[in-house]
């Protein structure tokens, strides 16, 4: 049974989506190189030009070692023990392009790969591996002017604590003291946090490159933690968005407007989110159409025309997903919105599933559409 057709779209972040080839006839090329996300000086894990990944783990006293693939991944790649005490293995097929989480299972225990950098996902720090993509240039680190990503701590009376957010300000923000900017509030998925969009998603580099190419008008991005009432896996229906809505709308947005040079009006404010962040975006924009004018759900569901109470307040609805998700639903929803007189755009990331390459591409497509008028 294909679980992808039986779970809500924002739940798919919890499924292993590695896109292995169905053919065992492919000859594996021995042109493996260290992943770009390895710890300094570490040779493994490695990837080859076909998208296969190879792992090497030191565990001389272990009886079983395997690499568990994807967020909450099960099964995975079994490694074989060599005489030197290292365990090695190669994935059964090529993986989808882009970023993937993984962890190492040693005799039933879950560990991170000491050779790889760690990224927060699946409600824990996971190892990460990058499969080079044919279109990776749009999020590459280039010799262009760069914006600044800074941490802010803002007071939250509703949660009785200080909360953290990361703010991207575009190149030139510090020098152009008279310029004010629109703002995109960009949410992560379930099990991730406010570091995801820059660390895994390369959001700041995507913005830097688009701005340097003259393809977008510069704007600010704000990323904060979307979980206020913690919900365990399998009990997502218990999540009540009103608590996060209070943090975002009543506390974070006023703080950002008072601290940064923003255009503090509804028509200059957007909200977007991936997976569960899309679910939050959908709920909050429906609850508070007076706050945001641009909506974007990235693998995070769709809107119906009747969900938009006042279409005159909505400048854009952007819907996206990977071609391995539910592309027909996204396309159909966008058409229905457009027929109802709402500016709607759909985007499908070819060859990807519920994963960061889908969302990197989605942000790259979304950004030029924001704040055009």
Q: So what's the overall shape? A: globular
CATH topology of the largest domain: Rossmann fold
Structural class: alpha+beta
Q: Identify the CATH class of the largest domain.
A: Alpha Beta
Q: How many DSSP E strands? A: 19
Protein name: Esterase
InterPro entries: AB_hydrolase_fold (IPR029058), Esterase-like (IPR000801), Ig-like_fold (IPR013783), Ig_E-set (IPR014756), Mycobacterial_A85_antigen (IPR050583)
GO molecular function, one term: acyltransferase activity, transferring groups other than amino-acyl groups
Pfam family, one: Esterase
Describe this structure in words.
With 373 residues, the protein is an alpha+beta fold. The protein folds into two domains: 3-132, Immunoglobulins (Immunoglobulin-like, Sandwich), CATH 2.60.40; 138-369, Rossmann fold (3-Layer(aba) Sandwich). It has six helices and 19 strands. It has helices at 196-199, 203-212, 241-259, 276-287, 327-339, 356-366; strands at residues 33-34, 46-47, 53-58, 65-69, 77-78, 80-81, 86-90, 98-106, 109-111, 118-121, 124-131, 148-156, 161-169, 183-187, 220-224, 269-274, 294-298, 316-322, 344-349. The protein has an eight-stranded mixed β-sheet, with helices on both faces. This is Esterase.
